[in-house]
Write a structure and sequence with these properties.
Belongs to the YjdM family. This protein is mainly beta. The chain has one helix and eleven strands, in the order E-E-E-H-E-E-E-E-E-E-E-E. A three-stranded antiparallel beta sheet has the order 1-2-3, with no helix packed on it. It has a three-stranded antiparallel beta sheet with strand order 7-4-11, with no helix packed on it. A three-stranded antiparallel beta sheet has the order 8-9-10, with no helix packed on it. Strand 9 and strand 10 (100-104) form a beta hairpin. The longest helix is centred in the middle third of the chain and has 5 residues, at 39-43. It is elongated, with a radius of gyration of 16 Å.
């Protein structure tokens, strides 16, 4: 008997497949964690590879991020300490060295395991 996999949360494609603990979409390339569906677990903020983020974590930026309204760029590999999780589109509130206070999306960071 086969399990029915959920559609892709990005493009709603029904052609998802599972690789180890991740679900993948062949149409848009989106990857996400295959969870049991617990409401608290679904509400958890996760980084780009599926690690659960909590207040006070240290993260690194995984790609160059241009700042709107400025010529500044947050470079890949920038380490950000002491994040704070907030509600909304930009779910991380933090202070980036050399830039200042800013909101980041969790999909563009990776948790640093210390």
């Amino acid at each position: 008997m086969t399990d029915i996999l959920p559609p892709c949360p990005e493009c709603s494609s029904a052609f998802t497949y599972q690789v180890d603990a991740l679900l993948m979409c062949p149409e848009c390339g989106h990857e996400w964690a295959a969870t049991g569906g617990d409401a608290a677990e679904a509400a958890a903020v996760r980084d780009s590879v599926g690690n659960v983020l909590v207040d006070g974590d240290t993260v690194t930026v995984i790609k160059d991020l241009k700042l709107k309204g400025s010529s500044s760029v947050i470079k890949v590999g920038t380490k950000v300490r002491g994040i704070r999780l907030v509600e909304g589109d930009h779910d991380i509130d933090c202070k980036v060295p050399g830039i200042g206070q800013i909101g980041l999306k969790s999909q563009f960071v990776k948790k640093v395991v210390e």
